[in-house]
From TrEMBL:
The protein's name in its UniProt record: PASTA domain-containing protein
Source organism: Solidesulfovibrio aerotolerans
Taxon lineage: Bacteria, Pseudomonadati, Thermodesulfobacteriota, Desulfovibrionia, Desulfovibrionales
Keyword Zinc-finger: no
Keyword Protease in record: yes
GO CC field: plasma membrane
PROSITE patterns per the UniProt record, alphabetical: PASTA (PS51178)
Domain PASTA: 607-671
Transmembrane segments: 21-39
First-listed, main subcellular location of the protein, grouped into a coarse class: membrane
GO molecular function: carboxypeptidase activity; penicillin binding
Length: 671
């Protein structure tokens, strides 16, 4: 058989090549048509539905809540701040081993295992175990890598000064909601708002904020609040109040400091204290702002207000006299008593020695209608209007319900009840030369409109007359407020010893001792008030409350640079060497700065002018340097220490002139 020729073999190979190329072309063409068909279907037919699905997978919305606003004092010191904390929650459906997870979480969270187990077995999708988890605890839980256990960011309230002004500030509960105090009153302003943001997710589910007008620019944080409180004066008030309550074995106490020209409250202290950073276990009794919520009978602190009303109505004159019946006065089947037997006393001495009988006769001469009318003008029976939730309005019965005995007892502060801030508001009228001025607690934003606009209650000469009478209470013989004297500074005051009502009606054997002070006595710039509840064994306001008022005043004036040069600061808590750093053995940097400024003759002070050199012995170096700097004197310091032990020129000598010898201070360490 003959073999195919070489030429025929080559032709056969070429024919199959064409077939292959044709098949490949047909296949590619069909594939191309299929792809275009699929693309057309996806774009035209299924496009809208796929776009929705893609948006669900790659774009999501997130709700974010701003942080709570901060609270500051008048000088900008931080009183309350929101900090980011971690909350712990579980998803019960994701938990693999309930027993193991419950045992571990109960141990690290210090919770009962059975309680944790119940939450882990809940039918809910998400259950919170703790709203606030510490950093160390959170780290331990993360290391355990327990399935179904998750963390979330929350905002928690932090009070950097602990119990400082705690009853005034209040506290915040779960969900960043204000529950008490100013936190509740300004909850709407302080609370951060919620905002919805659009975010993009990658294939792993991680989210990216891409809206340039979103989270970064949205104003969702709460607004701040600035108070009239001065944190340093608040500290002085709380420390001296605590001392007054504990020293006198009392149950509680309140202290208020008011700046008369503005009506601003500089301190509102309550004792016992509580720490608002500890959210659980706070007793409602301790957390109460007693200064604004609790009512009491003022007792003898009512007498200056009574006398002002009687002088205003011209029913008495400053030299009018009343028979105080040698300490016992029968009226309507009852006996009104004084602590001492007094005969005939003028009006000023009735206030000075605090005669109940004299006050009752002044009130009876004034009459029920007029006295009740002045009580209403002074603000008794209605809240002061401070932005404090639940502020008390006191107790002032209708004048029609008053008997002759009610008129007499109301004249010396029984049968009428008020809050401490109401009492401060009434004395603010006297201190402000007879013009009503509302108390102020919030500097920014402006607080709510006062319930009443300023108006005159007493003539200026009447208010000044009462101020002089209150000065006698402190500085004249037999004055009940002599304990509150501050050498070199004339203050006015009035003591109060109110018998508290008993549980079964009538009056019991418990008292409230109080003292109200004007600083200075005439044309006061500050009002300082202290009340001590149920002191024992002594219950007189001049004994239990007046010393605290004196010490608060000393420390406040020293802090404000208003201390008279003649006051021996070494006797006051503000000047005690114990308050100075124990490690210091010489002048501090601040003292050296003062000396440098004094050398440039650029220092001025508001201290009281005296014509001779005071006795600086025992006084703190820093205060002496401030006094001398105000005179343009740069002293030479000898020795090491913080307290002046000796000086040259000697006390009583004329101030050194420009051509006289230098001023030398010898220092000693505090003993």
């Amino acid at each position: 058989m003959r073999k195919p020729s070489k030429e025929s073999q080559q032709k056969s190979v070429r024919d199959w090549s064409r077939v292959k190329l044709t098949c490949v072309g047909i296949f590619l063409g069909l594939a191309w048509v299929a792809l275009w068909s699929r693309a057309g279907y996806l774009q035209i037919v299924a496009g809208p539905q796929l776009a929705i699905q893609a948006e669900r997978q790659h774009v999501a919305s997130e709700i974010d809540k701003g942080s709570r606003g901060e609270i500051y004092d008048r000088t900008g010191r931080l009183l309350a701040k929101s900090v980011e904390i971690e909350g712990l929650f579980v998803r019960p459906k994701e938990i693999v081993d309930v027993d193991k997870t419950a045992a571990y979480l109960a141990k690290v969270l210090h919770m009962k295992e059975q309680r944790v187990k119940q939450k882990l077995q809940s039918s809910s999708n998400m259950v919170y175990l703790s709203w606030r988890v510490g950093d160390r605890t959170a780290a331990k839980i993360r290391e355990a890598a327990l399935p179904g256990v998750h963390f979330t960011k929350e905002f928690g309230r932090f009070y950097p000064n602990g119990h400082l002004a705690s009853q005034l500030m209040g506290f915040v509960g779960v969900g960043d909601v204000g529950l008490e105090g100013l936190e509740k009153s300004f909850d709407v302003r302080l609370t951060g708002r919620q905002a919805k943001f659009v975010v993009q997710r990658d294939a792993s589910g991680r989210r990216y904020f891409f809206d340039s007008q979103g989270r970064e620019l949205a104003d969702i944080n709460g607004h701040d609040v600035r108070l009239t409180i001065d944190a340093q004066i608040q500290f002085f008030a709380e420390e001296e109040l605590e001392k007054a309550v504990t020293t006198n074995n009392a149950k509680a106490g309140t202290c208020l400091v008011v700046h008369v020209p503005t009506g601003e409250i500089l301190a509102m202290a309550n004792y016992p204290f509580f720490n608002p950073n500890v959210g659980r276990g706070i007793s409602p009794r301790v957390a109460r702002n007693h200064a604004a919520l609790d009512v009491f009978e003022p007792g003898s602190t009512m007498k200056p207000l009574l006398v002002a009303a009687a002088l205003q109505e011209r029913t008495v004159r400053p030299d009018s006299t009343f028979n105080c019946e040698n300490g016992k006065f029968g009226l309507a089947g009852k006996v009104i008593k004084d602590t001492h037997s007094y005969g005939v006393l003028p009006v000023n001495q009735i206030v000075r020695v605090s005669s109940n009988i004299g006050a009752a006769k002044i009130g009876m001469q004034l009459g029920s209608a007029r006295l009740h009318g002045y009580f209403e003008k002074l603000g008794f029976g209605r809240p002061t209007g401070l932005p404090i939730s639940g502020e008390g309005k006191g107790l002032l019965r209708p004048v029609k319900a008053w008997s002759v005995l009610d008129l007499a007892t109301a004249s010396f502060g029984q049968g009428v009840a008020m809050t401490p801030v109401q009492m401060a508001q009434a004395f603010l009228i006297l201190a402000n030369d007879g013009v009503y001025k509302p108390l102020k607690l919030v500097a920014d934003p402006d607080g709510p409109a006062p319930p009443r606009q300023p108006f005159r209650v007493f003539d200026a000469d009447v208010a000044r007359t009462v101020q002089r009478i209150m000065r006698e209470v402190v500085h004249e013989e037999h004055g009940t407020g002599r304990v509150a004297q501050i050498p070199g500074l004339e203050t006015g005051g009035k003591t109060g010893t109110a018998q508290k009502a008993g549980a079964g009606g009538g009056y019991g054997n418990k008292y409230l001792g109080s003292y109200v002070s004007f600083v200075p006595a005439i044309g006061p710039e500050y009002i300082v008030m202290v009340m001590v509840d149920e002191p024992e064994p002594s219950h007189y306001g001049g004994v239990v409350a007046a010393p605290a008022v004196r010490d608060v005043t000393l420390r406040m004036l020293s802090y404000l640079g208003r201390m008279p040069e003649t006051v021996q600061l070494a006797k006051s808590p503000a000047a005690s060497a114990a308050e100075m750093p124990a490690a210091s053995v010489g002048p501090t940097k601040a003292d050296k700065d003062i000396l440098a400024i004094a050398a440039s003759k650029s220092v001025t002070t508001r201290a009281i002018e005296v014509h001779s050199v005071p006795d600086f012995s025992g006084m703190p170096l820093r205060r002496v340097v401030e006094i001398l700097a105000g005179k343009g004197i740069v002293p030479r310091l000898e020795g090491q220490g913080l307290v002046v032990s000796k000086q040259s020129p000697a006390p009583g000598a004329p101030w050194p002139g420009e051509k006289q010898s230098e001023f030398v201070l010898w220092l000693a360490r505090p003993s």
